[in-house]
Amino acid sequence: MKFKDIFLIPNLITISRLLITIYIFISTSADEFIIANLVLLIALIGISDSVDGIVARKLNQVSNLGTILDPITDRIVFVLLIFWLSSFFNPIFLILLIIREILVSLGGLYVLKTEKTVKVTNKGKLGTALIFISICLGILNKDINTVFIDLFMYISLIFYYFVALEYLYKLNKKNE
Question: What number does CATH give the domain 3-175?
Answer without folding.
Answer: 1.20.120.1760
